[in-house]
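Please, does this match?
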Amino acid sequence: MKRINSVVLTCLLCLAAAAQAAEIRDVRFWRAPDHSRVVFDLSGPVSHELITLSNPSRLVIDIQNTTLGADTKSLQFANSPVTGLRHADKPGGALRIVFDLSAEVQVRSFLLAASGDLHDRLVVDFLDKGESIEAQVIKSVETSSQRDVVIAIDAGHGGEDPGAIGPGRVREKDVVFQIASRLKERFERKKGYRVVMIRNGDYYVGLAKRRDLARKAQADFFVSIHADAFTHPQANGSSVYALSKRGATSASARILAQRENDADLVGGVSLSDKDQVLAGVLTDLSMTASLDASLSVGAQLLSEMSKISRLHSKRVEQAGFAVLKSPDIPSLLVETGFISNPGEANKLKSSSYQSNMALAIFEGIDRYFRESPPPDTYFAALKRGDTPSGQRVVSGGQRIASGAREYTIARGDTLSGIAQRYNVPLDDLQRHNQLSGSSIRVGQKIQIPAS
């Protein structure tokens, strides 16, 4: 009888231990330009140990008191140093996961605790060869007297972080990446700009690193593109936000900043990566100048955005957005609409609205830099009336290239028709006249470049 009780007790203890074991419910893989990321979704907190092995290269992860409940057979590790994943149970309830690698890599791992709707996660990063986990030093470079204005375009969220999700499962990260890509195309069509995309695909970039990438590129302006969300589906409209030195200008701005600043918890950034922005930086003179420029550009953006969308706020709101805390780069966060609103969600996922929103953002930023260009840029040279090679400047700052002819728009003219008449590619005609679209007006003077 005692032996039976002992067996029963042992079984009960085993069942209790099994009940307390964590389970890996899902495994996901993301590829970024400088690293590969594997995320394990967990039912509870775990402890783990990393072991790197050579000949052949492998990474071993021992996770204590854990079971694997996810199917890993469908995982694809394209364009990464990971060639495969294996797993086995170890004595004592531990789970061993082995990553086969094509080469030795630098590895880091960290745990993200459950928060809100998010479960515990184990994040493993494989850093590409030649890259460093440490922040890279930003080096200044000598610029020419007529350099391009550098625009850093940041599509919010990405990868592990889908952002807000609207009706029909439309995801913020997808919508804003499309708008950002269309905005990039707009700037690339106009002489005098160079574009830096903060993310070029579906992967997450930490908020501090987004700023660091813009500073590394020595950007003249940083714009972060998002889509808003609220608990009530009736909320609607577009808005523009800048950093605040004192506090949020409204309750909605404060709530939005908190939600956007929490993106690192969703996207997978360890606590050690959290940006430590000194309060003093917000009183720095360079920050004051950057904020003034940000507010000026923001006013231009609102003016353009009001032509295609209702404005949720008719002024540039301000709050403590982490992604905007670059002391030397004018920066704005643009909410392109409420993805939680069914009507605006439909607009946000449409190519026509995405193009119109990209155009509005472009027009606002472009107007600012044409009116207030950095002194060493192409736009500053045009404003001063300097003569670029092979060009002459006439009244009003209009430039006429050598061999070009001037044409006055008449009633019934179209830009495509003029291009066809003079046997000039439409793109060349637009670029030569710094036109962002095909809109022209009667009496307007344009130049026909030499074919």
Summary: Residues 149-371 form a domain with the Aminopeptidase fold (CATH 3.40.630.40). The chain has three domains: 2-127, 149-371, 388-448. Residues 285-305 form the longest helix (21 residues). The two ends are 103 Å apart (CA to CA).
